[in-house]
Amino acid sequence: MPTLFELLGAPPKRDQVITDACQVLDAEVADKGGLGGLAIKGAYGVIKGIKPGFVREVVDGLLNDFLRVLDPLYQEAVTKGVRAGAHLQGNSGRVADALLAVTDEKAARAQRAMVKSTYEKLRPTAKKQVEAAVPRLGAMLDRHTG
């Protein structure tokens, strides 16, 4: 059974996944409301403003690790004969923990103080935000693996 990295980690599929992931991220941020949503939108604007294409670079830099940590869930879905997206939704807490373990490590090593401080401000509510994004993430995974 191929791994997620084998399926999605190399061109041309990789470029398609990165583009789709950036669109998912944009949609998730756009949907945020309230004071928390304002903070997320503001922080995302700061990150996007660092330089053109910065978000795409970050997604590209995280993709291998994200594919690695999501692969066990993907393999479980394949073994059970269910769509990966549905399996991810049923395990949104595990998905969030896995992805945040990656971003926590990357943020700790970030060279840009603005990136690090922005991440630290948003981290307390990150699990809830990532769990809310799992349906879109799962649908994206289904589009590229199905």
Layout of strands and helices, then pairs:
Elements: H1 4-8, H2 13-31, H3 34-48, H4 54-80, H5 84-90, H6 92-108, H7 113-122, H8 126-145
Helix pairs in contact: 2-4, 2-8, 3-7, 4-5, 4-6, 5-8, 6-8
Summarize the structure.
The protein is mainly alpha-helical. The chain is 82% helix and 0% strand.
State the main characteristics.
82% helix; 146 residues; globular; mainly alpha; 0% strand
| Termini gap | 14 Å
The helix content, as a percent range, equals over 70%
Low-confidence stretches: none
What is the element string, with H for helices and E for strands? HHHHHHHH
Shape: globular
Proportion of strand residues: under 5%
Report Rg: 15 Å
Structural class: mainly alpha
Q: How many distinct beta strands?
A: 0
Question: Would you give an account of this structure?
Answer:
- This protein has 146 residues and is mainly α.
- It has helices at 4-8, 13-31, 34-48, 54-80, 84-90, 92-108, 113-122, 126-145.
